[in-house]
Amino acid sequence: MTVKSLTGSERTAIILLGHGSRAAGAAEDMEKVVARLKQKLDYDIVDICQMSGLGDLFPEVFDRCVSRGATRIMVVPYFLHFGVHLRQDVPAMMMEKARQYQHVKLILGKHIGFDDALVGIIKKRISESEELYDIREIEFEPVEDCHCEHNSH
Protein backbone atom coordinates (compact mmCIF):
# COMPACT_ATOMS: atom_id res chain seq x y z
CA MET A 1 0.00 0.00 0.00
CA THR A 2 1.28 3.46 -0.78
CA VAL A 3 1.72 6.16 1.80
CA LYS A 4 -0.54 9.17 1.40
CA SER A 5 1.20 12.41 2.23
CA LEU A 6 1.22 16.09 1.38
CA THR A 7 4.97 16.14 0.97
CA GLY A 8 7.44 13.38 0.25
CA SER A 9 8.73 13.33 3.82
CA GLU A 10 5.37 13.38 5.62
CA ARG A 11 3.77 10.10 6.72
CA THR A 12 0.08 10.37 7.60
CA ALA A 13 -1.89 8.17 9.99
CA ILE A 14 -5.66 8.13 10.31
CA ILE A 15 -7.19 7.39 13.72
CA LEU A 16 -10.92 6.80 13.98
CA LEU A 17 -11.88 7.90 17.52
CA GLY A 18 -14.95 6.47 19.24
CA HIS A 19 -16.60 7.27 22.55
CA GLY A 20 -15.95 3.85 24.03
CA SER A 21 -18.02 1.55 26.22
CA ARG A 22 -17.64 -0.84 29.10
CA ALA A 23 -19.85 -3.37 27.25
CA ALA A 24 -17.92 -6.15 25.55
CA GLY A 25 -18.37 -6.07 21.77
CA ALA A 26 -19.84 -2.56 21.66
CA ALA A 27 -17.21 -1.34 19.18
CA GLU A 28 -17.59 -4.20 16.68
CA ASP A 29 -19.42 -2.08 14.08
CA MET A 30 -16.78 0.65 14.33
CA GLU A 31 -14.07 -2.00 13.92
CA LYS A 32 -15.80 -3.13 10.69
CA VAL A 33 -15.74 0.46 9.43
CA VAL A 34 -12.00 0.70 10.14
CA ALA A 35 -11.36 -2.63 8.38
CA ARG A 36 -13.15 -1.31 5.28
CA LEU A 37 -11.29 2.00 5.46
CA LYS A 38 -7.99 0.11 5.53
CA GLN A 39 -9.01 -1.54 2.26
CA LYS A 40 -10.29 1.63 0.59
CA LEU A 41 -7.95 4.40 1.76
CA ASP A 42 -4.54 5.18 0.40
CA TYR A 43 -2.93 5.48 3.84
CA ASP A 44 -0.75 2.77 5.32
CA ILE A 45 -1.62 3.61 8.94
CA VAL A 46 -5.32 3.45 9.75
CA ASP A 47 -6.17 2.71 13.37
CA ILE A 48 -9.01 2.82 15.87
CA CYS A 49 -9.23 4.05 19.45
CA GLN A 50 -11.71 4.92 22.15
CA MET A 51 -11.94 7.81 24.59
CA SER A 52 -12.73 5.42 27.43
CA GLY A 53 -13.86 1.90 28.24
CA LEU A 54 -12.73 -1.21 26.41
CA GLY A 55 -10.27 -1.23 23.55
CA ASP A 56 -7.17 0.79 22.86
CA LEU A 57 -7.34 4.35 24.14
CA PHE A 58 -6.20 7.45 22.27
CA PRO A 59 -2.82 7.96 24.02
CA GLU A 60 -1.58 4.44 23.25
CA VAL A 61 -2.85 4.46 19.66
CA PHE A 62 -1.29 7.87 19.05
CA ASP A 63 2.05 6.61 20.43
CA ARG A 64 1.77 3.51 18.24
CA CYS A 65 1.25 5.65 15.12
CA VAL A 66 4.29 7.77 15.98
CA SER A 67 6.39 4.65 16.57
CA ARG A 68 5.35 3.46 13.09
CA GLY A 69 6.74 6.69 11.64
CA ALA A 70 3.68 8.95 11.42
CA THR A 71 4.58 12.64 11.27
CA ARG A 72 1.00 13.76 10.57
CA ILE A 73 -1.95 12.25 12.43
CA MET A 74 -5.56 12.94 11.53
CA VAL A 75 -8.07 12.03 14.25
CA VAL A 76 -11.55 11.53 12.79
CA PRO A 77 -14.23 11.45 15.51
CA TYR A 78 -16.82 8.68 15.09
CA PHE A 79 -19.47 10.98 16.58
CA LEU A 80 -22.77 12.25 15.20
CA HIS A 81 -23.14 15.35 17.36
CA PHE A 82 -20.85 18.30 18.03
CA GLY A 83 -21.24 18.11 21.80
CA VAL A 84 -19.01 18.53 24.84
CA HIS A 85 -16.66 15.69 23.88
CA LEU A 86 -15.86 17.29 20.52
CA ARG A 87 -15.82 20.86 21.83
CA GLN A 88 -13.66 20.23 24.91
CA ASP A 89 -12.65 16.67 25.79
CA VAL A 90 -11.18 15.52 22.47
CA PRO A 91 -9.24 18.76 21.82
CA ALA A 92 -7.81 18.66 25.37
CA MET A 93 -6.77 15.03 24.95
CA MET A 94 -5.16 15.85 21.60
CA MET A 95 -3.39 18.95 22.94
CA GLU A 96 -1.65 16.79 25.55
CA LYS A 97 -0.12 14.69 22.79
CA ALA A 98 0.61 17.75 20.62
CA ARG A 99 2.69 19.24 23.44
CA GLN A 100 4.49 15.94 23.94
CA TYR A 101 5.25 15.41 20.23
CA GLN A 102 6.13 18.81 18.78
CA HIS A 103 7.34 17.26 15.49
CA VAL A 104 3.98 15.58 14.74
CA LYS A 105 1.24 17.56 13.00
CA LEU A 106 -2.02 16.66 14.75
CA ILE A 107 -5.32 17.32 12.98
CA LEU A 108 -8.77 17.12 14.52
CA GLY A 109 -10.80 15.89 11.56
CA LYS A 110 -14.49 16.45 10.96
CA HIS A 111 -17.00 14.34 12.90
CA ILE A 112 -19.78 12.42 11.15
CA GLY A 113 -22.36 15.16 11.75
CA PHE A 114 -25.02 15.61 9.09
CA ASP A 115 -24.66 13.99 5.71
CA ASP A 116 -27.36 13.18 3.16
CA ALA A 117 -26.15 9.58 3.30
CA LEU A 118 -27.48 9.43 6.89
CA VAL A 119 -31.01 10.18 5.67
CA GLY A 120 -30.88 7.05 3.52
CA ILE A 121 -29.47 4.99 6.38
CA ILE A 122 -32.21 6.16 8.79
CA LYS A 123 -34.86 5.52 6.14
CA LYS A 124 -33.48 1.97 5.78
CA ARG A 125 -33.50 1.46 9.58
CA ILE A 126 -37.12 2.66 9.79
CA SER A 127 -38.10 0.14 7.13
CA GLU A 128 -36.17 -2.62 8.93
CA SER A 129 -37.91 -1.72 12.19
CA GLU A 130 -41.50 -1.90 10.91
CA GLU A 131 -41.95 -5.56 11.86
CA LEU A 132 -40.14 -5.49 15.21
CA TYR A 133 -41.84 -6.35 18.50
CA ASP A 134 -43.19 -4.02 21.16
CA ILE A 135 -40.46 -3.30 23.71
CA ARG A 136 -42.47 -5.10 26.43
CA GLU A 137 -42.25 -8.35 24.45
CA ILE A 138 -38.48 -8.39 24.24
CA GLU A 139 -36.22 -10.07 26.76
CA PHE A 140 -32.87 -8.33 26.95
CA GLU A 141 -29.76 -10.15 28.03
CA PRO A 142 -27.67 -8.47 30.71
CA VAL A 143 -24.66 -6.55 29.41
CA GLU A 144 -21.26 -7.84 30.38
CA ASP A 145 -19.62 -4.87 32.08
CA CYS A 146 -15.83 -5.02 32.05
CA HIS A 147 -15.46 -2.82 35.17
CA CYS A 148 -12.33 -1.60 33.45
CA GLU A 149 -9.88 0.84 34.96
CA HIS A 150 -10.19 3.36 32.10
CA ASN A 151 -12.29 6.44 32.69
CA SER A 152 -15.85 6.10 31.49
CA HIS A 153 -18.28 8.73 30.29
Summarize this entry quickly:
The chain is an alpha/beta fold. It has helices at residues 28-40, 58-67, 84-100, 116-129, and strands spanning 12-18, 45-50, 72-77, 105-108.
Give structural notes:
- By secondary structure, the protein is of the alpha/beta class.
- It has helices at residues 28-40, 58-67, 84-100, 116-129, and strands at 12-18, 45-50, 72-77, 105-108.
- A four-stranded parallel beta sheet has the order 2-1-3-4, with helices on both faces.
- Helix 1 links the parallel strand 1 and strand 2 (45-50).
- It is globular and about 55 Å long.
- It starts with 11 loop residues before the first strand and ends in a 24-residue tail after the last helix.
- The mean pLDDT is 90.
Attribute tags:
153 residues, 4 helices, alpha/beta, globular, four-stranded parallel β-sheet
Return Rg in Å. Answer: 18 Å
Largest sheet: 4 strands, parallel
Number of strands: 4
Q: Helicity, in percent?
A: 25-40%
% residues in beta strands:
15-25%
Count of separate DSSP helical elements: 4
> What does the overall shape look like?
globular
Order of helices and strands: EHEHEHEH
Mean pLDDT over the full residue set? 90
Give the distance, in angstroms, between the N- and C-terminal Cα atoms.
Answer: 36 Å
Instruction: Tell me the strand order in the biggest sheet.
Output: 2-1-3-4
- Uncertain parts: none
